[in-house]
Amino acid sequence: MLSTMSTPVRAAAASEPGTDTAHRLLEAAAEAFADRGFHATTTRDIASRAGLSPAGVYVHFASKEELLYQLSREGHEAARDMLVEASEAAGSPTEALRAIMGTFSRWHAEHFRVARIVQYEFGNLTPAHRDAVLGLRKQIDAVVRDVVTAGVASGEFSVEDVPDTTLALMSMAVDVARWYDPEIKRTPAAIGEAYADLGIRLVTAR
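User: That's the sequence. What structure does it adopt?
Assistant: Structure tokens below.
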């Protein structure tokens, strides 16, 4: 299942010293958290999956929680950058929102295991790390909110409450990670197309 988590995990390791080993540890942590949950996972579990001694974890990461934070931080940064790129490449708010919803929903299917860790293990971060991740979530929210605001201003969207609508749009896309399973017949690409349509319907319904 590593193919479902490779992009955000590799991004997380790229900025760390000892990249190859850090990358192995992050992939091992992602696997372990996905299989056993954060609390049931030990640093010994992670080290074993990475082919290291238990002490090897602490050469690169101060704690199990720091591994979780790195996964969460880099996952959010990847999502933010992806949405910014999708928005900036579009020629109108409608095109931007379609690209954002399609890309974000597809990403949550393709990387569902890491996405679940990022979403459902959030409460296990330290207060400082939770604040940092919340800051990234606000940046992601701002990208979408700006597109919805622009669509209202141009007359393309009919939205009375921009913040609530933004929350609904993002919640739809994020929820894909909760129910997605590689065994279902719908592909991530098909899910992205469907959610892009749903997003546009939400902001244009009268």
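The chain has eleven helices and no strands.
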